[in-house]
Amino acid sequence: MSDNEYDAIIIGAGVIGGAVAYELARRGQRTLSLDKGPGAGYGSTSASSAVIRFSYSTETGVAAAWDGLHYWKNWADYLGAEDENGFAKLVQCGMALLIEGEQGHHNRVMPIWDRLGVPYEYWDRATLGDKAPNFDLNLYGPPARSTDEEFWSDSHGEMVGALFSPDAGYVDDPQLAAHNLQRAAEAQGGEFRFRTEVVGIDQAGGRVSGVTLSDGTTVSASVVVNVGGPHSSHINKFAGVYDAMNIKTQSIRHETYHVPGPPDMDFTADGFAVADDDSGIYFRPQPGNNILVGTTDPPCDPKIAVGPDAELGELTSDGWDTNTLRINKRMPTLGVPLPHDKKGVVDRYDKSDDWIPIYDRTDLDGFYVAIGTSGNQFKNAGVAGHLMAELIEAVEGGHDHDAEPLQVTARYTGLNLDLATFSRNREINADSSMTVHG
Ligand SMILES: Cc1cc2nc3c(=O)[nH]c(=O)nc-3n(C[C@H](O)[C@H](O)[C@H](O)COP(=O)(O)OP(=O)(O)OC[C@H]3O[C@@H](n4cnc5c(N)ncnc54)[C@H](O)[C@@H]3O)c2cc1C
Q1: 347: Cβ below 6 Å to ligand 1?
Q2: How far does residue 47's CA lie from ligand 1's centre (Å)?
Q3: pLDDT tens across 155-192, in order?
Q4: For 183, which DSSP code?
Q5: Which residue's CA is the nearest one to ligand 1's atom 38?
Q6: Which of 57, 206, 230, 429 could pair with 308 in a Cys bridge, judged by C-beta atoms 3.0 to 4.6 Å apart?
Q7: Mutation test of ligand 1: which of 91, 315, 376 has the most ligand atoms closer than 8 Å to its C-beta?
Q8: How confident is the model over 46-102, as pLDDT tens digits?
Q9: Is the dihedral of CA 402, 404, 409, 414 positive or negative?
């Protein structure tokens, strides 16, 4: 094999791209990761809220997230290589999924948790009140924008309780996690080139033969994996596979907000993460008694498509006001942060049509995709790497994945991951909540 020839080229060195590279490299493949950014994890990974939770509405979604936790719990062992910058850390503060009424998201989640053995506590209203004494447990939803009249309506009922996952939490440094994966892949012989943009997918004899870079040079490989995050549809278009996919991906502008914690408690030390569909937000502790607030993307929130390289601008006043007022309604002791204190991040989701990722082959032999991560797949990085490597090995070995979707055994829990859930050719999954809790 020449210096410019690899078994697999991975486009993108975010947390998912890094995991795909590591999993292929540890299986003995000669990998090359290409990223147009300056280092690992500078794409949407850097903006991730990195919430680790298991409240998905499909069985494979829950199984993947639950297995995904175990990668983070065993992070240094899993990587098997040092990183001069240290390791990203899992903080298990727990997460409460608030129950608004009998028809809420918990109804989908709870039976799956029971079947798969995901631990949780059912908190009734009194218990939730004890655990979160500074919460207002009245119902105000469905979520609205603070500029809408309904936002200011009186409450119309009382919260039923919560499902609490003691194992849930967040990873403290998502960009470092991607760097950790780079070092782990390198320790297995994987190579990385940064500030290197892929502009073409080369083909010969009806299958992938490598990539063309923006400086006009080419690199050969019989497998190429698109893990380009919000650039995924752009890359699929120049590979010529976009039109044939039933599920599409799109780059969507997304904001998250950082607000000071309540004065009556240390939220970093004693708080837990919360998914609040009644308000349309999720939130979690941040170091320094701060709170990270994200929107769950309820129907009233704008879904703004932006080109993957377009300027994103600053946090919007409308987004800041709406979401800080939403959390203030739930935790009135917070006090509404002032407009000139706007803090947070603006980035992009690579959103799929049903908010479920696409981990699949494509109609072009040798060209694979790990895309459409829709603001909720950081937690699954290790799992995504594992199942992409299993998929690539199986398909390159002759398995007809489209006819018989691969079933992958999850590394830590032994649960079954049915890859039909992540197919590019699925119908929009009607079980998807179409919202995100991080
Ligand atoms: C604001 C926000 C909050 C989130 N919160 C959570 C959360 O709480 N929990 C959770 O589980 N998930 C969350 N996510 C989702 C999670 O962060 C992403 O799913 C994950 O980081 C995606 O990783 P990736 O490697 O696929 O993509 P990225 O990190 O976007 O990496 C893609 C890389 O591809 C490179 N690239 C693109 N095109 C090319 C090209 N042509 N040539 C070379 N390189 C290219 C880019 O430079 C980039 O580095 C959130 C995401 C965002 C944006």
Answers
A1: yes
A2: 8
A3: 999 999 999 999 999 999 999 999 999 999 999 999 99
A4: H
A5: 228
A6: 230
A7: 376
A8: 999 999 999 999 999 999 999 999 999 999 999 999 999 999 999 999 999 999 988
A9: positive
